[in-house]
Amino acid sequence: MRIACIQPEVFQERDNCYFEVEEILKKLIIEFENCEIVCLPERWVNLTNGKELNLQNERGNNYNFIKNLAKEYGISIISGAIWERRKNSIKPRITSYYFDKNGEEIGRQDKIHLYSYERQNFEPGKELVLFPFNKIYFATLICFDMAFFETPRVAAENGAEILFSPTQIRAEGIQNWEIYLKARALENRIPVVACNTYGSLFKRKFPGQSKIISFVKDYISPSKLRIVEGPIDSSGFVYDEINLDFPKKLRNLRFKEIIDKNSIKVRKIKM
Prior knowledge:
The protein has 271 residues and is α/β, with parallel strands linked by helices. Helix content is 26%, strand content 32%. The protein has helices at 14-31, 61-73, 118-121, 150-157, 174-188, 245-256, and strands at 2-7, 37-39, 48-49, 52-53, 56-57, 76-78, 82-85, 93-99, 105-110, 130-133, 136-140, 160-167, 192-196, 198-201, 204-207, 211-220, 223-229, 236-241. The strands form four sheets. Strands 1, 2, 5, 6, 7, 8, 9 and 18 form an eight-stranded mixed beta sheet that branches. Strand 7 (82-85) and strand 8 (93-99) form a beta hairpin.
């Protein structure tokens, strides 16, 4: 599976953000013409449109921009996160669309674990979606969804062979984020593709440093992670080619070792 994270700088004007994304995609395709699937970060347009949150109508401008990119360049794209209003939701949703190389929408994943201010302004997703890609399935876990072991585990147990994670991690949280990503990869023996925001939002710096985490072949016990990183404090992309057969072997071995937590009795000694 030939994968890339596109890490554009976030600008105030939406058209500048569109231009930045497309320019990086062009450079990626020139260098790696066989790339099959691209992931964008959680945030690649500004958070606000004037004084209001930068909300889109369902399948609005940001959606159509990514859809058209996928079709024009013949590459599958995970859209990052789009803030959109829906007729059947009380509050807006934070959602990530997946388009195939023909620009067809295959499905979307709503953010399940909302972070901080998001809980006041958005409605959480209730369903985890597994998306088909060639002969495998993958899951999209938006940022904070990767901070909890349940969502990656449910994805892996139900047949996901790789996890994509559009993220928005500021500089102060990078160290914790790296630990989460490595832990989720190791505890599920599954590759993780995490695409992080680059730029300044609300005077907070987001350094990018996107990561593609996979496994070094033939290292079974202990397993050995292979980590390819994107640019730090600059725009650009990161590319890697991942063989999913070896992680699948590791995952089968690991899942045979799992103990049902409900079978573990807890005894608390009184003070």
